[in-house]
């Protein structure tokens, strides 16, 4: 963004204020004295302006903003009716900067809040109703989602390595994140839906970075998957979906399970033995399908199916041949390497950081499994790698 000289800035800013009759300088530090409003003046909104008036008002705002050499990160909303910007705070702000929002038709900008002097970016939702303030956090960023009308912040603040990417309908964001512990690095591709209390994993992997690039109208999230040494990078695309078995998905509630499978089940209450589940679980036994539900979270943690009627979202059923399984799943998913060694043939890493395992009528004592095209599916398990006592 080119900056004008200080003298030129003063001239343009003065002219702008004379023309518009603004009651405050753009970006005036919060708490500084404000010029008195003119008696009887009514402040119009953008809805009260014609397209020509909006265009002229935008030009005047831009002239005023560019006249101030200290203003930066000028970011217009997609509808071109609101602009965000940052300027240094006063001496009383102890090194913090200030974020402002100026709306077409308003005589002055609104103070949003103090921000760190390390703001990485400001970004708008496609519908211009929310914006994100991304402030530097270590090597990444912490993101504040703000309602542009009320200036209220979402209580959940996603952490990411880069600026999050908005879903086209403005209901969610996608971003890459990382976690480091005990010499291991995990990468995550996360989805946060506005209004939720937390984010969901779409993908996660050891020693992998995820860089989200776009989210298109067809629902494809386009991203780069890169190994930590930076020697291999792949462009990929995925949908934000949750694989399921017979209409039940990991993370579903009890009500969602009953909506899919009905109320004809037998419940086993949690006992002292929880196996590799992260919490005590209830087991719901349907005919040929077992559903494990967390006692604390109330969410489905595992689906175990042996019923011939059980079917995955890609149309594979118990009794189908291995060749059908591999034709449906190997083109979309990988069979990961186990931390215990060897490729997990017939087990697929699927969306939601989950695992979909197919059991076949193979020799149970044989490892690794030798799965032939005519082997038949005897069971299907949708779960998380940690519950399988693995990590991938």
Automatic annotation (TrEMBL):
The keyword Signal applies. Coiled coil: none annotated. Residues 26-56 are annotated as: Disordered. Residues 1-24 form the signal peptide. Keywords: Signal. This is WD40-like Beta Propeller Repeat. It comes from Desulfitobacterium chlororespirans DSM 11544.
